[in-house]
Structure formats: C-alpha cells, structure tokens
Amino acid sequence: MKVHKEVIYQYETVFDPNGAGYTITVPKLPGLVTEGNNLKEAREMAKDAIRCYIEALLKDRGRSFAKPHRARIRVAV
C-alpha cells in the first residue's frame, strides 16, 4: 500500500486594505490575486487561491513553482 505524505506549502501573503475589504497577493506566485470582505474571509480566500494555483501547476507537469518559505504576516500600523 502506498502512503501519501501531506505537503504543506507556506507563502508570504500581502493583505492590502481596499476600502471594501482586502486585496491579497502572493509575491512568489505571479498573477495570484484574490479578495475578501474582512480579514477572516481574506485568509480563507488566500488559502483557496494558493491551493488552486499550486494544483494547476502540478497538473501541468512541465511547470515548476517558487519554493515555499517560512510564513510571515506583515502588519502595517
């Protein structure tokens, strides 16, 4: 029986307030942009967008993607 190891990817995400909520980008994943009405929703949208982005790249076996690194959350005051 083959056992699949779960891989957890962690990327730095940037949450920019946009008046109606947050716009989220991931610098290491070009073109990835999503939005959320509040911080909680924005985090969930970011997780889903990153997962979809990576799944799409993995399906296209000829493509690679930026290696993840430690997660950091930036807080602007």
Strand order of the largest sheet: 1-2-3
Low-confidence stretches at least 5 residues in length (pLDDT < 50)? Answer: none
Largest sheet: 3 strands, antiparallel
Q: What is the global morphology? A: elongated
Distance between termini? 52 Å
Number of strands: 3
Helix fraction, binned, reads: 25-40%
Give Rg in angstroms: 14 Å
Oligomer: single chain
Q: What is the string of SSEs from the N terminus onward?
A: EEEH
Our estimate of the beta-strand percent is: 15-25%
Concise summary:
This protein has one helix at residues 39-59, and strands spanning 14-17, 22-25, 33-36. Strand 1 and strand 2 form a beta hairpin. It has a domain at 14-59.
What is the fold's blueprint, element by element?
Blueprint: E1 14-17, E2 22-25, E3 33-36, H1 39-59
